[in-house]
Amino acid sequence: AQTVTQSQPEMSVQEAETVTLSCTYDTSENNYYLFWYKQPPSRQMILVIRQEAYKQQNATENRFSVNFQKAAKSFSLKISDSQLGDTAMYFCALSAGNMLTFGGGTRLMVKP
Amino acid sequence: DTGVSQNPRHKITKRGQNVTFRCDPISEHNRLYWYRQTLGQGPEFLTYFQNEAQLEKSRLLSDRFSAERPKGSFSTLEIQRTEQGDSAMYLCASSHRQTYNEQFFGPGTRLTVL
Fold first, then answer.
1. Which of A87, A71, A91, A97 is nearest to A21 (CA)?
2. CB pairs under 8 A between A and B
3. pLDDT digits over A5-15, tens only?
4. Does the structure show a pLDDT above 80 at B1?
5. Percent of chain B having pLDDT more than 90?
6. Is the dihedral of CA B48, B68, A39, B99 positive or negative?
7. Is the peptide bond before B8 cis (omega within 30 degrees of 0)?
């Protein structure tokens, strides 16, 4: 069984500041992928960033980067230079085969 | 727009009625997934197809739920004898055979059972 835990139900950040969202997971598989998805209010889920477990280098996508700590089973998301459009629910997800297992989400509010 | 599409976007029904949702995946994506998301929670896996074959079903998928993908393109999810607990957002996603772990989601169908 796979589990994903997001311990921060809500977070807020000032526009242009940096924020880090936490995620821990558990799986017995050696080969797996980790993802962060963004779900804006009343809008569809968008893939933000992905990380292959076999890669040691942390993934980056423009203002988004991850801190992947495989031994600790931790996968945090850092958003730099936060923008108002980053306001959304953020879900951490794990795939070790055919389906995604999601965490409970973190609601991020970017304040002007 | 060539993303995943879902219809209808909203469905309100009375308890006991049957409902059917449709999902059109991104073209050339051979895998199609259904998830259910209740308010304030992360999506939960229901089932997935590779081409027309339904390869995995969650225990969340009770006997009242059935999904099909007859020609390996669009898929339908039917809920029979709806219950109030079925009220949720039903999400569809698809992925390409070469990057199957990377799933792209549709806008969802929000079901309200009165």
1. A91
2. 52
3. 999 999 999 99
4. no
5. 83
6. positive
7. yes
- Which among B33, B42, B58 has CB closest to A103? B42
What is the rounded average pLDDT of the residues A31-37? 95
Degrees, nearest 5: CA angle B25-B91-B46: 100
The b/e string for B73-93 (b: 16+ C-beta within 10 A; e otherwise) is: ebbebebeebeeebbbbbbbb
- Which residues in chain B are contacts of A95 at CB distance < 8 A? 101, 103
Rounded to a whole number of angstroms, the distance from the CA of B85 to the nearest CA of chain A is: 19
Residue A29 CB: number of other CB atoms within 10 A? 11
| Residue given tokens 């958003």 in the structure block | A79
Could you tell me if A25 and A34 are in contact, meaning their C-beta atoms sit under 8 angstroms apart? yes
Residue of B44, B55, B106 with shortest CB distance to A44: B106
